[in-house]
Amino acid sequence: MNNKIKIAWYGKHFGEEPPLIGDNPKNKRYGAGAIFFSGCNAHCVFCQNHQISQSDLGKEYSVEEVADIMMDLENKGAVNIDLVTPTIWWRPLRQSIILARQNGLSIPIVWNSNAYESVGVLRQMFNLVDIYLPDFKYGSDEVAVKYSRLPKYSQIAEEALREMFRQVGHLETDEDGLAKRGVIVRHMVLPDNLENTFLALERIATINKDLRLSLMSQYYPIYKTVDFPEINRPVSLEEAAAAENKKLELGLEYGWTQEPEAGEIFLPDFNKINPFEK
Domains of the chain: which residue ranges? Predict the structure, then answer.
């Protein structure tokens, strides 16, 4: 068995929801301790991280080295360990989390995924992951196949989200407003695909209307979107408003809504494989 884990970048990351980063840069505890893994089980034509998800950029680390990275991030003031697209590496990652906990890691583990993962895998992470952060990308299976080559996405993602919620429940925060445990579910609105958004929100609402939902309009055309004219543009204000109205109509009242004009993305420089001096 190959116990190596390929990582493109790790460091303090500030592009997550407020409870995952904190709200005061002057505090010692500020920023998610992100680890961006190489590769992905999806093939999104609009992937913002396509350099690492599709181009195999990165460096291999051992289970022990990944545990050390987690400890290093905590020592540098990260408020959690944010595992970004971890699914394909779940076996060795599980060992790294266990080892880091044994070595004294005390901040929450965040499983930041595309929700296209089996319930069986998620059950292997029970009592190891504190916060699940799935991006429920598609309510339409046709759209999921077209843009990401993900068959039966909506059913698989719904089953995964139900398991995540069963494990950790609603979002819990500490006295500083930082997430300790629970689920935050994301959905990114795609241009010219409102029906997909409506179907995704309907599935989320059937699980629990009080889930913390992050409705994102940060989409921008990149990577292969030139081959898909309907999504080769940003989300309009009208589309974002329609998605927000649908969310409220379904009773999904808790969480965050991102306006299109506020959709600036913070992404690390993936060419800097080792941001910390050893």
Answer: 5-262
